[in-house]
Write a structure and sequence with these properties.
Length: 653
């Protein structure tokens, strides 16, 4: 047991119990010191035979030891022990003085006890002990003869009172200092508290700002993620997300030895709708189409928009081709009803190409390429259809791409030549005009007719320079014929839909007329009935602008479209050309006879000329003459021939 353990009574104290710890150390020190002193005095008293006083001292020693025991037992016992020890010490001094009144030196214990009481028990105990000390001196002087004179007694009392006052003042000073310290401590605590609250408020504000920033950052992250992975127009997965998910589908199918299908969907004639009604209508149409597709598929299927009017669909849980065909049918049927946007009634169809994993490919690029080839096959077969992929489609697609590339070189090498087919008066056999028909003198494949390449030119930008080439070539040759004395009356040239929609068409025609000194009445343009009737307002405006240049206009393949008389009468056309599909059945097919007779009668009533295409025998010719159609074109009169043959047959020079 070390000294610190003795002085603190074996207790541990916190930093906040510093004053209590000091009191314990002082109390233990005084008790031990007083016990030690009293023990020595007791031995001396026993030696001198003062047994009574020695017994009193022993009682004090035992009381002190018991007090130490109580102090070690509980911290709170110190409150009682201080009072008991102080009063016991005072009592012991009184007994000692009363027993040995001649030993005046014992009076010094009164101040010692008072000082100890003040320091250990506080101000109240100090005042009580001081009062009891003065009272004890007076009582001792009154009851027994202490041998002190009045002056000495009075001085002893004055010393005690003075000591008490000094100690009280010291205590007061300590109290004031303590109050000031507490006040300063409270001030510092309040200041620290305010600073902490201020900082907590700043922290909370900063924390809230950080949380708001985190939320905004997460929202931006999600927004960027959506922008990166979803089509902003339709909300469908875009090409990037589609490729990512399709890669996982392939991995899963390979792992589990399963099949799945990819459907490539391309809207038919979407560009015409976009150009005719504007991009806003086109965008709304794409959103409606995407919604219609989504309503026709399973939630487990993956529908995406690759861009433009192209959609893709991945169908898992593959059963058989009939199952996939039924899905393709549903998608095609989803667009069977007209769509109404901003007051417009719009019809749109879709062509679908289907490839199957792993039969038609085992990677994304191959599967998409093959479904794309199947889709093009469906378009070539008439559109609004679905086709499953076959190897021949890849061969055809490769041939198509090769042909497209070769066509661009063909324009540079002047490989395109112009053939002409006469248009005659069937009654007099008189030549009344020529229709210009382009041919391709292919270096390897020989002479190619338009059905072999014109559809490729139509789907690409090649049709524009090719159309200009044909116009300039025809203008130069017709001018040459006139110089040689041959006047074919007029030359008709076919204009495709893309040419009619090209913004430089009018300037190209005008430049050609001025450049070649080509008379405008020598030229006639043939347009398809489908273009004229599908977008009548647009076509009427464009045709009026062409008509203003002085050239003639005719509607080609008339009868194959869906003509409206109200629109037809507004079109600035001069002529109707009856499609050869209706001529081939004459004069035996009753439906063809009625239709052709109706067209001839319609043209006559509208003051339009009418030409029958594809006349191949005398029976067809006679029937046409009988119903009043005298202008004809076909193999019966002459096949399309090149420029040199026309020269030999009709030119004088």
């Amino acid at each position: 047991m070390n000294l610190n353990n003795i002085l603190t009574s074996g207790h541990s104290f916190t930093e906040g119990e510093y004053a209590l710890k000091s009191k314990f150390i002082l109390l233990n020190s005084l008790i031990f010191l007083s016990i030690t002193v009293v023990f020595i005095l007791t031995i001396v008293l026993v030696y001198h035979g003062k047994i009574f006083f020695a017994m009193a001292n022993i009682f004090y020693i035992l009381s002190g030891l018991y007090s130490i025991k109580l102090l070690r037992k509980n911290k709170t016992n110190q409150k009682y022990i201080i009072v008991v020890i102080s009063l016991l010490s005072l009592l012991l001094v009184v007994i000692a003085i009363s027993k040995y009144p001649s030993e005046e030196v014992r009076f010094v214990w009164f101040p010692a006890i008072i000082i100890s009481s003040f320091f250990l028990g506080g101000k109240k105990l100090g005042y009580i002990v001081a009062f009891l000390s003065v009272l004890s001196i007076i009582m001792l002087e009154y009851l027994i003869d202490t041998g002190l004179n009045n002056y000495t007694t009075f001085l002893a009392i004055i010393i005690i009172l003075f000591s008490t006052t000094i100690i009280a003042l010291y205590e007061r000073r300590e109290f004031i200092l303590k109050e000031e310290l507490l006040s300063m401590n409270q001030y510092l605590e309040d200041k620290v508290k305010k600073e902490i609250q201020k900082r907590l408020a700043m922290y909370e504000k900063t924390h809230n700002q950080l949380q708001e920033s985190a939320v905004k950052l997460e929202e931006q992250k999600n927004a960027f993620k959506n922008l990166a992975h979803y089509d902003t127009l339709t909300g469908l997965p875009n090409r990037l997300l589609f490729y990512d998910r399709l890669e996982k589908v392939i991995e899963n199918a390979e792992k589990n030895d399963q099949k799945f299908s990819i459907l490539f969907l391309d809207l038919d004639n979407f560009k015409e709708i976009n150009d005719s009604f504007g991009h806003d209508v086109g965008d709304d149409l794409l959103k409606i189409v995407a919604e219609k597709f989504q309503n026709r598929i399973s939630k487990s299927d993956l529908l995406a928009r690759l861009g433009g009017d192209e959609f893709t669909l991945v169908v898992g849980g593959w059963r058989n081709t009939e199952h996939i065909a039924s899905i393709a049918d549903r998608l095609i049927h989803a667009l069977s009803e007209p769509i109404y946007i901003l007051g417009y009634e719009i019809y749109i169809t879709v062509s679908v190409g289907i490839s199957i994993y792993p039969d038609d490919g085992m990677d994304i690029a191959t599967l998409l390429k093959h479904s794309d080839s199947a889709m093009y096959s469906a378009k070539n077969e008439g559109r609004n259809l679905y086709h499953f992929y076959k190897q021949i489609m890849t061969d055809q697609a490769l041939e198509r791409v090769t042909l497209e590339t070769r066509m661009r070189k063909a324009l540079e090498n002047n490989e395109f030549i112009i053939y002409y087919q006469p248009i005659v008066n069937g009654v007099t056999s008189e030549l009344i005009g020529l229709e210009a028909l382009v041919r391709w003198q292919h270096p390897e494949k020989g002479l190619l007719t338009p059905d072999k390449f014109i559809h490729i030119a139509e789907r690409t930008s090649i049709i524009i320079p090719l159309g200009e080439y044909v116009m300039n070539k025809v203008a130069g040759q017709v001018k040459d014929w006139h110089e040689k004395g041959f006047n074919p009356s007029y030359i008709s040239i076919n204009l495709s839909v893309n040419q009619l929609r090209h913004k430089k068409l009018l300037s190209n025609i005008n430049n050609m007329l001025e450049k070649t000194n080509f008379r405008d009445d020598w030229l006639e343009f043939e347009i398809t009935e489908s273009y004229a009737m599908k977008n009548p307002e647009e076509s009427i405006e464009v045709l009026n602008q062409i008509k203003a240049l002085g050239v003639k206009l005719s509607i080609d393949d008339f009868g194959t479209g869906y003509s409206s008389l109200s629109h037809l009468k507004k079109l600035p056309v001069d002529k109707l050309k009856i499609d050869k599909a209706f001529i081939s059945g004459l004069p035996y097919d009753l439906d063809d006879k009625i239709l052709v007779a109706t067209i001839v009668s319609l043209a006559e009533n509208m003051n339009l000329k009418v030409v029958a295409e594809g006349v191949e025998n005398e029976e067809q010719k006679k029937y046409l003459e009988n119903i009043g159609c005298i202008y004809m074109q076909g193999y019966l009169f002459e096949k399309p021939v090149d420029y040199t043959i026309i020269n030999k047959k009709y030119c004088k020079v």
